[in-house]
Amino acid sequence: MSATTRAAHASAVALPSVAGLSFARAALELKTFFRRREAVVFTFALPVILLIIFGSIFHGHVPGTDVSFRQYFTAGIIASGIMSVTFVNLGVSIAMERDDGTLKRLAGTPMPKVAYFAGKGLSGLVISVFEVVILLVIGVGLYGLNMPDTAQRWFTFVWVFLLGVASCTLLGIAASSLPRSGRSAAAVLNLPYLVLQFISGVYFPFNSLPKGMQVIAAIFPLKWMCQGLRSVFLPDSMLVAEPAHSWELGKVALVLLAWIVGSLILCLRTFRWQSQADR
Amino acid sequence: MTISASPHPTTPRSASSGPTTPPHASVRVRGLRKAYRDVTAVDGVDLDIWHGEVFALLGPNGAGKTTTVEILEGYRQRDAGEVTVLGADPGQDGREWRSRIGIVLQSNTDADELTVREMIRYFAAYYPNHADPDEVIESVGLTEKAGARLRQLSGGQRRRVDVALGIVGRPELLFLDEPTTGFDPEARRQFWHLIKGLADGGTTILLTTHYLDEAETLANRVAVIAAGRIRAVGPPSELGGRGSARATVSWLSGDGRRSVETDTPSAVVAELAARFGGEVPELTVTRPTLEDIYLAMIGHDSGSAQESGSAQSPATTGASQ
């Protein structure tokens, strides 16, 4: 009798839900991030400083248009801010967690592995929202950036943001396996990020870059994130200075989706829960 | 009946050992092999760890200890052999199986910015049948540090957090990898007390350690592994024939220190007592320590090896002189 009651009780003890643990992981990631004050300041202050420095150096218009150059690179810095939060921060944090034993310890628990990635992704999303809001406040306040004025543009803003966050997050998770140690991670991930910023039309009008750079930049997501965000914040009079004389939103979506799928496959095949020294 | 006898009544699979496992084996290993490139780390290990026992795995660095344990923990894949841990193949690594084991790895430096309580609570949430986080913190003696960030803790305190994370899920089987490295003597005693408490509660424990006194204090049985093979298995008091090993009786005679090896130390002592008419000066009776046996097994020629050489001379002859 008591055995049956106990057995019935036993079957009621189920494994904790994946969704619940994903949110718990996200809460833990955010708590940890906001407690690392240096990282918080660096993450949020760097794009702001760049925005202000570029804003005080450059005036005038994008050549051949009536579009303020300050507004042009504000859109670009928002895109690169998203990439910094997701690709660089996330990739470095995972590489360090692989090094310090966090990943190995988690792999030894019944935590569903997808909850770890969901936690990283959700926390990256929240931090990206903070980043974008801060940059928009400065862009609108100092450089007269116009917030999207149609539902169409808001919709574009939301999907470009979400696809940008998703592709850079997955790319960051995949790239976290590249550095040999946690200490070298920041250097390894910042290099491609820096190069991409300069060739993707963040700080310079994209069609003023050498053709070769444009071709290379068009392979990676940042160029398309910048272009998508320009379509949201800049007037259509900008189109004459866009390489295709069109916002190419379909192509933006396609390239970002392709990166999401490609990075996901890369993550699934290459992700390691233990450091190389530990194998 | 069987259910209430189990330490984890709410975990169905522990209630009755599955048909795939022999009645009382928590861990069963047969012919385990693992090589890294051309280096053979584990070379045919057989092992049985009984339900409820504390089992210590001893061996020098590079002997295959960590590889063996990490295969049992599901961290590494084996090349060959049969491995059953709590009735399942650890290579298959399901969440349900993971919720029944606890792992305390070697040094971790993770999660610096979380407090002890936060860390234990987050980990507790991964397990279906976890213990109360505050009670776990209490049991490892960190109640006063519960609100401190992990980076503020000393090495020994961090190690206790590791242990707390290993036991918060109320595991049936706990892996402890060199748990007391870097502890001061008092912290080690406290830790031993904690482990004995878990063992008394029915938790099966696999301990790897470099400290032979730790193995002797905690383990019901120890195995010595060297060069990828198990050299001996047995209770610490009997390992390598230690229990039946000859005793060394040593005393101070008129012409210096004398000692004999004998199977009958009591008789020798009685004879000496009669000869000296009472107290024998500086009398000692010793048997090989676990360390002597261990060092001989892993192939280090130490002082103990020379002593056993002197065992050639018949003890009775020495005593009668």
Question: What do you see in this structure?
Answer:
- Chain A has helices at 2-12, 18-35, 37-57, 69-100, 102-107, 113-143, 151-175, 182-199, 211-217, 221-233, 249-270.
- Chain A has 279 residues and is an all-alpha fold.
- Chain A has one domain (16-278).
- Chain B has 321 residues and is of the alpha/beta class.
- Chain B has two domains: 16-239, 3-Layer(aba) Sandwich (Rossmann fold), CATH 3.40.50.300; 241-320, no CATH class.
- Chain B is built from 13 helices and twelve strands.
- Chain B has helices at residues 2-5, 12-15, 65-72, 95-98, 116-124, 133-139, 155-167, 185-200, 212-218, 265-276, 290-297, 303-309, 315-320; strands at 25-36, 39-50, 54-58, 80-85, 101-104, 173-177, 204-208, 221-226, 229-234, 247-253, 256-262, 284-286.
- In chain B, a hairpin with a 2-residue loop joins strand 8 (221-226) and strand 9.
- In chain B, helix 5 (116-124) crosses helix 6.
- The longest helix of chain B is centred in the middle third of the chain and has 16 residues, at 185-200.
- Chain B is globular.
- Mean pLDDT of chain B is 82; it is low at 1-19 and 301-321.
- Chain A binds chain B through residues 2-3, 6-7, 9-11, 13-16, 20-21, 24, 28, 31-32, 35-36, 97, 100-102, 104-105, 107-112, 274, and chain B through 1, 3-4, 9-12, 15, 73-75, 95-96, 98-99, 101, 103, 105, 107-111, 113-114, 118, 122-123, 125-129, 149, 165, 169.
